[in-house]
Amino acid sequence: MSLKFNPKPVLVAYFTVGDPDLATSRDVIIAAIDAGAGIIELGVPFTDPVADGPVIQRASERALENGTTLRHVIDLGSEIRRQRPQAGLIIFSYLNPILSMGLDRFCTALAAAGIDGALVTDLTLEEADGYLWKMREHGLATVFLAAPTSTEQRLKAIAKNSSGFIYAVSRLGVTGASKQMSGDAQQLVKRLRKHSKLPIAVGFGISNSDQFAAAAKFADGVVVGSAIVETIERSPGREALAVGNFVRGLKRRGSSIEKSANA
Q: Is residue 239 annotated as part of the catalytic site, yes or no?
């Protein structure tokens, strides 16, 4: 498994695959890895991305107009695995595309592609037994979301059923850039650490180097999604260069935090 969280903080970078096209998705993901992203979330475009804000909604619409499917996302993951074997790769999807493919076929395809696991945003723990069994059978990580409003009992259940890492949602609402980090994030990480020794990545709303550095002080990984997708949207014809520069800026600040902590 390539889901490594050392050295910390690890940048977990989200991409909507197929936006603006599959070839560009490959190029920007490679650029992000080369610039320092340690784990890549391969976003599956979906017709009704209810957990996502307008930036990722627009990206999903563009990717779907291009005909991008879950199979395309997995195939791209396989290509990235061959080209950059050190990177962690996670499928980030809603449940419907997985059910349409078939759970067994999905798990088999992920394992064959060398993808490390999946995060299914709208799959509840109460309905995840079959999914968990199949994913574990194929040696795949099951990443779940934990929210600031989750009870201690629920956080314990999330910790018990997660593998690879836990995704701590930094604030309530949908994905998208925000002006400042929520104080809920650090408290949530502290609560999760009582229930699990897994790495914890904080995401939702982190869009600049200051926020990245703030989250890096208490989390093992920092998830950046909408800001990267928006960088792609704003940089037609030079997407890979723009994403590489953006990621380097984030990592530079995060590295300074790590050095200060170890001084």
A: no
pLDDT at 53: 78
The percent of the chain in helix, strand and coil, each rounded to the nearest 5, is 50, 15, 35
pLDDT at position 51 is 61
Pairing of strands 117-120, 141-143: parallel
Kindly report the CATH number that applies to the domain delimited by 10-262.
3.20.20.70
> Choosing from 21, 27, 41, 79, which is the catalytic residue?
41
The 3-state DSSP class for residue 40 equals strand
Residues of the chain with pLDDT under 70: 1, 51, 171-183, 253-263
**Using alpha carbons only, how large is the chain's radius of gyration in Å?**
17
- Widest distance between CA atoms in the chain: 51
Structure confidence at residue 109 (pLDDT): 98
The per-residue pLDDT for 114 is 98
**Catalytic pick among 27, 48, 52, 75:** 52
The question of whether 233 is a catalytic residue gets the answer no
Q: Compute the distance between CA of residue 3 and CA of residue 90 in angstroms, rounded to an integer.
A: 9
